[in-house]
Design goal:
The chain is of the alpha/beta class and 249 residues long. The chain has 8 helices and 10 strands. The protein has a 10-stranded mixed beta sheet, sandwiched between helices. The protein is globular and about 60 Å long.
């Protein structure tokens, strides 16, 4: 796992990081910390930890610099704890271009665990299905799961019936895996409704899928939806991409 933080104006970066230790062994077995050159207090805090780690200096916190470290170290997850306003462009590029899952940490402090209450926004596209697979992998960490679908266009009676059936089926998969899940339909602007749902149900994180720079999730994640969710969500956002097919040319 690559953990990127500028250490500036964070509520408590090391405390935020410790919440991710739930994922140890499931997602990572070592951590690469990308830190500013002057980060002695962090390295001192890390000296007493039991997991394998190393630190790397990072100056510009650009998409290119972050991805260079991620590729060099072969990490499976990128965690970014940066100010959303100062690093807007970096976060947007990570959300739309990264072929590795990206976890953008929230700006609101919470005593709860990251996976206590997951808000899963889906339209059953390949990207959404990959998010679902991640959720099932983390099932023993999740206390509650709210499955959200946002209607952004007028549906026929038949469409609405099929939509409800899909939600029931998705919820049943989660229940069968021991996850306490509920499903909900929202209507309106997709990004706004996802953020609203995270507030309505007091979620501790939002999970969405991304198809990179292609049209995002053919139905609900159009345009810059994911970037808008990241910008406005108070809680962390996990973005899971669809892998790029390997060329055989």
């Amino acid at each position: 796992m690559l953990y990127v933080t500028d250490l500036k104006e964070r509520i408590s970066s090391f405390d935020v990081f410790k919440k991710l230790l739930q994922l140890e062994k499931k997602v990572f077995n070592r951590v690469i910390f990308a830190l500013p050159p002057s980060s002695e207090s962090w390295t001192e805090s890390l000296s007493s930890t039991e997991f394998q780690f190393e630190t790397k200096p990072i100056k510009n916190f650009s998409y290119q610099e972050i991805m260079s470290i991620a590729e060099e170290e072969h990490v499976s997850l990128i965690v970014v704890d940066l100010d959303k306003t100062s690093y807007h462009t970096t976060l947007r590029e990570l959300a739309l271009k990264s072929r590795k899952p990206v976890f953008v940490m929230g700006q609101k402090h919470s005593d709860k665990g990251l996976f206590d209450h997951v808000i899963f926004a889906t339209d059953w596209s390949p990207a959404s299905e990959r998010v679902m697979n991640h959720i099932l992998t983390f099932r023993e960490l999740i206390d509650e799961l709210d499955i959200i679908h946002v209607i952004s266009e007028k549906l026929t009676v038949k469409d609405m019936r099929e939509l409800k059936e899909r939600l029931v089926y998705t919820r049943k998969i989660c229940l069968d895996e021991g996850i306490n899940a509920e499903s909900h339909i929202y209507a309106g602007k997709v990004a706004e409704e996802i953020v609203t749902a995270s507030a309505d149900y007091r979620g501790t994180m939002i999970a969405v899928g991304s198809e990179g720079e292609k049209p995002l999730l053919k139905r609900i994640f159009k345009g810059d939806t994911i970037n808008t969710v990241i910008k406005n969500a108070a809680v962390p956002v996990l973005i899971v991409p669809v892998p790029v097919p390997v060329s055989r040319d």
